[in-house]
Amino acid sequence: MSCHHQRVISALLSFAVVAGLMTIVPGMDTALVLRSAIRHGRRHALFTALGVTTGVLVWGVAAAVGVSALLTTSQVAYTALRWAGAAYLVWFGVSMLRQTLRPKPAADGRAVTSVPTTAGAPEHGIGGGLMRAWATGLATNLLNPKVGVFYVAMLPQFIPADAPHLLAGVLLAGVHNLEGLAWFTLLIAGTGLARSWLSRETVHRWIDRVTGTVLIGFGVRLALSE
Question: What is its main location (predicted)?
Fold first, then answer.
């Protein structure tokens, strides 16, 4: 094996350790995937996870070609994306909390408190359906400037000097994606084991309330961060 190939493999393995630690740290992406698995099942959660990993790939390519370096060199660019992401997360969380408080007519005409699941409801962030689940995961990841800053700060350190930057960036982001999908698959499978208990409407409401509150907290923290 040539020295070049050894350097590439060494860079991939080293980045895999760092990205793996980043993957298992609880965050807004994990909260979204877990909620999707509990509320709508494994397929919906898988598409949410695929949306998240698509965002990771976009950030990886952007960092490799230097586009996302704007986040570290331009205060205006970073602030604009930070406020957009914060607003999205707060809106997302508030929408989820509002859905848990909205009554749903029962079969006998009486109103009961439940979470609507119509296609137009904003409970998934931008509506129902598998593609909408994917878009929700994608938007949540892309509107988090800290992901971009992580890639700008970390990716160049793992790209060998003689390697094509774009190709190396895609490979490194691909490693992160594989780890992310493996981790999300474990989480989704875990929720499947407790499906009977998690499918209760009362549990659904509390999951939405907790997740909504967490997302609002992430949004506020992002807005107030330097």
Answer: membrane
* Alpha carbons 226 and 78: distance in angstroms, whole number: 10
CA distance 156 to 15: 11
Q: Which residues pair with 112 in a beta bridge?
A: 104
Q: What is the pLDDT of residues 141-156, one digit of tens each?
A: 888 777 777 777 677 6
Are 136 and 54 in contact by the 8 Å Cβ rule? The answer is no
pTM of the predicted structure, to 2 decimals: 0.66
Contacts of 3 (CB under 8 A, 6+ apart): none
SS3 197: helix
The maximal CA–CA distance of the chain, rounded, in angstroms, is 74
CA distance 155 to 19: 10
Rounded CA separation 109/208 (Å): 25
Interatomic CA distance for residues 199 and 197, integer angstroms: 5
Distance CA 60, CA 49 (A): 17
Q: Do 176 and 83 form a contact (C-beta atoms < 8 A)?
A: no
Cβ-based neighbour number of residue 202 at 10 Å: 9
pLDDT score, position 2:
63
Instruction: Determine if residue 130 is left, alpha or beta; phi over 0 gives left, psi from -120 to 50 gives alpha, anything else beta.
Output: alpha
Q: What is the C-alpha separation between 94 and 123, in angstroms, rounded?
A: 10
DSSP letters for 106-136: -TTS-EEE-----TT-GGGSS-SSHHHHHHH
C-alpha 28 chain-centroid distance: 6
> What residues form DSSP beta bridges with 131?
none
Which tokens go with 85? 């992401």
